[in-house]
Amino acid sequence: SDDDFLRKEDERLAKALQGSLKLEPPPWNRNGNRNANVRQPMSFPQSTGLRTCAGCNNVISHGQFLRCMGAVWHPECLKCHGCKLPISDYEEIIRITSLALEKTITRDVMSAATLTDAAGFVEYKVHPFWAQKYCPHHERDGTPRCCSCDRFEPKEVQYAALNDGRKLCLECLDSAIMGTADCQPLYLDIQKFFASLNMKLEQKIPLLLVERQALNEAMDGETNGHHHMPETRGLCLSEEQIVSTVSRQPRIGMGNRVPSMRIEPYQLTRQAEVTAILVLYGLPRLLTGSILAHEMMHAWLRLKGYPTLRPDVEEGICQTVAHMWLTSEIASLSRQGRRFPFEKKLADFFKQQIESDTSPVYGNGFRAGNRAVLKYGLQQTLYHMRSTGRF
To answer: Which of 112, 152, 180, 250 has the fewest CB atoms found within 10 Å of its own CB?
Structure first.
């Protein structure tokens, strides 16, 4: 086929290029430090006829040119889409030629320096869900990630800065819930979802959106709390406390920075087994909703008098209900067609995060709970949990 012919041609060109460029190891720079490992400058064949550059589409009438992926290039026209710099490392050119990759390497998040591995190849990683390409050291150098969708901040885009140090990408910011009052319509929607599962909550439970510090303080003060994830985003509270709640949604300031929030104290009084549900502010509607569904399931179990359950059983059924809510939201977004393409993708991401969680409590607990619900139904699973304490 044409593809096989082109691949073989690329491989042949790669071997020829490798042979012409790597006959001897690069000499040391006689005027520099022997430990500097300076590479030999790259050499290119001279053009002897009219050729069209695949990068700029101009004729290469004279001077040096480069063969790569079955085409010819000006040396300065073979560029990385991420940093816009020419790819001048001859081993990297051999790599993209022999592997017959796309026209140029694309990295969505680029550092100032190009990193190479021990063999001299340019390294990059790919986000398992979003397919965002980035240099590996961004996992360690403090490059901001969106606290919602987990994508790195691209080179030429500035994420919104929240007051507690988190960053939010502009797509997630578009549906972010910033204040307690703004979350009430979502709270009512999830109450209706619970009622549709024959799990109506009779008691009115206060819902408060809080900053990270207030959530951590409330978690530390909770003596009868459930198991917590490394990054806590929600809490079902059963102790009397004073909580600093976010009372309103601000306008976005200059440079995508969210201005100071209005924080007001809220006195919690214990009237039953549940005093409040706390959710981290500044997250998009779908993530806020899945957290709220999870915490409302904790509240339902307490108010219905369920015995103390193993962490993996309680967290597992709460994650299962959150997963069910996300599934219902995806179905709703699908019915609306292409109106909300990013929101549907975001819902798929949050759902996939629950499904692929590797932790023994949340991940294994969800998989066991989800299997039970799919096989026996939610009500039968809850009845078995009450009777035996397990799925």
So the answer is: 112
